[in-house]
Design goal:
The structure holds two protein chains of two kinds. Chain A is globular and about 55 Å long. In chain A, helix 3 packs across helix 4 and helix 3 runs parallel beside helix 5. Chain A has nine helices and ten strands. In chain A, strands 6-7-8-3-9-10 form a six-stranded mixed sheet, sandwiched between helices. Chain A folds into two domains: 156 residues, Rossmann fold (3-Layer(aba) Sandwich), CATH 3.40.50.300; 76 residues, no CATH class. Chain B is mostly helical. Chain B has a single domain, classed as ABC transporter involved in vitamin B12 uptake, BtuC, CATH 1.10.3470. In chain B, strands 1-2 form a two-stranded antiparallel sheet. Chain B starts with a helix and ends in a 7-residue tail after the last helix. Classes of the chains: A alpha/beta, B mainly alpha. The interface between A and B is medium-sized, with 39 and 26 residues.
Chain lengths: 251, 320
């Protein structure tokens, strides 16, 4: 069997006494949509930050597309095709929506030691940026300052930024965070359209969304993998009910 | 509204530059050079403030040691003149190379930190260079170094003529405003703006930030070094005081006063700051207290600097 697109082995991350990631091993196949679920404080965001390269793990290895990327900084992982979105929208609030996405396009359009030409009128950046904004449904809002977008629109812009880097593996940290039911449903529809076009790893609190979307699910509690399997297997698992779904669903 | 936001800075820039272009003929009517000298000095500091604003206002790098490059540029001219090398091309090339080298080293070390640490470490480097200049007894130590002749440009320019020097400085200011305009709107400019706005996001969308920030830091250092070389020509004297940390603070105040993250803001800031200094110091020896009060009011009531204040008066919005 060939190596999965992402292979995490024995990952450990400690924060002064607290073990946020406790010996996590996980493989994600190309094209799969994999959900990582777990109660608040289970270490989902910490896990994503380590795959992106923002946090160095204390132990363990991360292999992506057959290459050990454990020590690579985020920009080099981005170049290899990993992208992420943030739970709390991390955009460029002082720029327009189109400027935001164009910047992400620019990051993957050669070096930026280009001092002369006006980047805001460069069709090589603007055309792809507008196409991506259209694809997430923000085409009408392209020229709005990102700070002026609604919460749901910022969540979409957040994902547009990640998509603009043309990732092979997209890490989504609670894409529906803070959304009302209507916006959340729209986000789930959008994610189901992405499914199959790239490999997706998402963390999520919304169980309906997870069971609707995920091919496979990993359950994380106190940094440790307590269960893993297909959506049906997880739904049926007594351990998951006890650890998470039944008792600790305060989110 | 959007058109106002675009047009207002252009109109203001045109008015300021036209005003500066007309200083020598108007001042010349009275037959004395004092006004020309004052505005030459103002424009030199406008260049320094403009260079700081590229990293501070656009790039979010709060360098508190920017006067170091002013000093390095001025000493490059002074030291070469001391050894009777008065070729202006050589002197300015030396000023550019020396300030680029210093900025490369200081930036390389400092950019590994951020926030308060970045402020402190750039300040510390500037103080080291300041103390180094005091220890250079060959070049006058703390008493400074007299420069016997102006930079010579193959007989093309006589910088001893105040009007010629004025228009040279004016030309350099125009050039840097134009280059700055291209730079901040280029792909490179977008990267340093993004690094100010959200550095973490910049890294995760794939930018290796350090190299771009360092390049911006060096560009700003070089522009300020050129201002220093011009200052040496105006004063025919260079002393460590030019690099004192309070000088770095003054340059930063010009940027904040005029309007960070705009190109004409620092120019406006330099004009107002130095004219106020000139006027107030004629009125009272405690002028610094009055100036301090003015700056506090400006920061409290004119966010975005005078430029931001002007736009709000016109019902527009401040912005880049």
């Amino acid at each position: 069997m060939p190596e999965p697109l992402l292979q995490v082995t024995g990952l450990v991350k400690r924060f002064s006494g607290l073990t946020a990631t406790d010996n996590v091993s996980l493989g994600i196949e190309e094209g799969e949509l994999h959900a990582v679920i777990g109660p608040n404080g289970a270490g989902k965001t910490t896990f994503i930050a380590q795959i992106m390269g923002e946090l160095p793990p204390d132990q363990g290895a991360i292999r992506f597309a057959g290459e050990d990327v454990t020590r690579l900084p985020p920009h080099l992982r981005s170049a290899r095709g990993i992208a992420r979105s943030f739970q709390i929208s991390s955009i460029f609030p002082d720029m327009s929506a189109c400027d935001n996405v164009a910047l992400a396009v620019q990051a993957h359009a050669g070096h930026s030691f280009r001092f002369w030409r006006d980047a805001r009128t460069d069709p090589l950046l603007r055309a792809p940026a507008r196409a991506i904004l259209d694809s997430v449904g923000l085409g009408e809002r392209a020229d709005m300052p990102a700070a002026a977008l609604s919460h749901g629109e910022k969540r979409l812009l957040e994902i547009a930024l990640a998509l603009a880097t043309r990732p092979r593996l997209l890490l989504l940290d609670e894409p529906t965070a803070g959304m009302g039911p209507e916006d959340a449903a729209q986000m789930v529809r959008f994610l189901s359209e992405l499914k199959g076009k790239m490999t997706l790893l998402l963390t999520e609190h919304d169980m309906d969304a997870v069971f609707a979307l995920a091919d496979r699910i990993t359950v994380l509690v106190y940094g440790r993998v307590v269960a893993g399997g297909t959506a049906d297997e997880i739904r049926a698992s007594a351990e998951v009910r006890r650890a998470y779904l039944g008792e600790d669903d305060r989110a | 509204m959007r058109r106002l936001r675009v047009l207002a800075p252009m109109l203001l820039t045109a008015m300021i530059l036209l005003g500066l272009a007309l200083v020598p003929p108007i001042a010349g009517l009275s037959g004395e050079n004092y006004t020309i000298d004052v505005f030459t000095r103002i424009m030199i500091f406008a260049i320094a403030a403009l260079s700081l604003d590229i990293i501070l206002g656009y790039g979010g790098m709060v360098s508190f040691g920017h006067a170091a490059y002013l000093g390095i540029g001025a000493y490059a001219v002074g030291i070469l003149a001391f050894y009777h090398i008065d070729n202006g091309f050589l002197q300015f090339a030396a000023a550019i190379l020396a300030s680029a080298a210093a900025a490369a080293f200081i930036g390389f070390v400092s950019l590994r930190t951020s926030g308060v640490y970045f402020i402190m470490i750039t300040l510390a480097f500037a103080q080291m260079i300041y103390l180094l200049s005091i220890s250079l007894s060959t070049f006058g130590g703390s008493n400074g170094l007299n420069i016997d002749v102006h930079s010579k440009f193959l007989g093309l320019l006589d910088l001893g003529n105040p009007t010629t020097l004025y228009y040279l400085v004016f030309g350099v200011l125009l050039l840097f405003l134009f280059l700055g305009h291209r730079l901040v709107n280029s792909r490179f400019g977008m990267v340093i703006r993004g690094a100010k706005s959200n550095p973490r996001r910049m890294a995760t969308i794939g930018f290796p930030l350090l190299r771009y920030q360092l390049a911006a830091f060096i560009i700003a250092g070089v522009m300020c070094g050129v201002a220093g070389a011009l200052l040496a020509n105006q004063e025919l004297f260079v002393a460590p005081a030019i690099m004192h940390w309070t000088r770095s603070g003054e340059i930063m105040m010009m940027v904040i006063l005029g309007g960070m993250g705009t190109l004409i803001g620092p120019v406006l800031g330099a004009i107002v700051f130095l004219l106020l200094e000139d006027v107030l110091s004629g009125v009272t020896e405690h002028w610094q207290a009055v100036m301090g009060l003015f700056l506090v009011l400006a920061v409290l009531f004119a966010r975005g600097g005078m430029l931001g204040f002007l736009y709000r008066l016109r019902g527009g919005r401040s912005g880049a």
